[in-house]
UniProtKB/TrEMBL annotation:
<keyword id="KW-0067">ATP-binding</keyword>
<dbReference type="GO" id="GO:0004674">
    <property type="term" value="F:protein serine/threonine kinase activity"/>
</dbReference>
<protein>
    <recommendedName>
        <fullName>non-specific serine/threonine protein kinase</fullName>
        <ecNumber>2.7.11.1</ecNumber>
    </recommendedName>
</protein>
<keyword id="KW-0418">Kinase</keyword>
<keyword id="KW-0723">Serine/threonine-protein kinase</keyword>
<dbReference type="GO" id="GO:0005524">
    <property type="term" value="F:ATP binding"/>
</dbReference>
<feature type="region of interest" description="Disordered">
    <location>
        <begin position="1"/>
        <end position="22"/>
    </location>
</feature>
<dbReference type="GO" id="GO:0000245">
    <property type="term" value="P:spliceosomal complex assembly"/>
</dbReference>
<dbReference type="InterPro" id="IPR051334">
    <property type="entry name" value="SRPK"/>
</dbReference>
<dbReference type="GO" id="GO:0050684">
    <property type="term" value="P:regulation of mRNA processing"/>
</dbReference>
<keyword id="KW-0547">Nucleotide-binding</keyword>
<dbReference type="GO" id="GO:0106310">
    <property type="term" value="F:protein serine kinase activity"/>
</dbReference>
<keyword id="KW-0808">Transferase</keyword>
<dbReference type="InterPro" id="IPR011009">
    <property type="entry name" value="Kinase-like_dom_sf"/>
</dbReference>
């Protein structure tokens, strides 16, 4: 399988070979997901996928959702970013959204029909990928050695698949309750 990162003329995928309901062409500036995200540039591609960098037009909401699931963003990140002052105060708190409802990932998964043990196991596997500090991110080899990968049925039950599809749909529609 070949893969590549993008440059220049490769940004425009064109419409040749694309079919409705299957692959579809994307160009920089194209909106998707109800106009929430805007395609910025292609960052890689392979035989089965293309990865695009996208701008989230609801960035403040996205930061709040991240904090609700993962906890407070470390202050060294909130005060050093080039746009930090647009979103965070000097204490690292969001400027616009003040009250957050912290909700651990495993509890969110249980809400969307994962069993408690499944939710806990998957959260234990997923959580390290979502750390705010890149120095703490696990390597691919470490991830593959995680117990969550062991004894997995290569053909998941339809019930599990529908739970995952429902979770994906509902995460797209997740709304933050803003308090003042």
């Amino acid at each position: 399988m070949s893969c590549s990162s993008s440059s220049g003329s490769e940004e425009d995928e064109g419409a040749d070979g694309y079919r409705k309901g299957d692959y579809h062409a994307v160009r920089p500036g194209d909106p998707f997901c109800g106009r929430r995200y805007i395609a910025q540039r292609k960052i890689g591609w392979g035989n089965f996928s293309t990865v695009w960098l996208a701008y989230d037009t609801r960035c403040k909401d996205h930061l709040a959702m991240m904090m609700e699931l993962l906890g407070k963003i470390p202050q060294k990140i909130t005060i050093t970013g080039s746009q930090s002052k647009d979103y965070f105060d000097s204490h690292g708190d969001l400027k616009i959204i003040r009250r957050l409802k912290f909700w651990p990932i495993d509890k969110l998964l249980v809400k969307y029909n994962f069993s408690v043990p499944e939710a806990w196991e998957f959260t234990e596997f997923l959580q390290p990928f979502l750390d705010f500090t890149s120095e703490k991110l696990p390597t691919a080899a470490q991830c593959l050695k995680h117990p969550w990968h062991r004894n997995k049925d290569p053909h998941p039950m339809v019930e599990n698949k529908s739970s995952i599809e429902k979770l994906e749909r509902d995460l797209d529609n997740l709304q933050i309750k803003v308090g003042r």
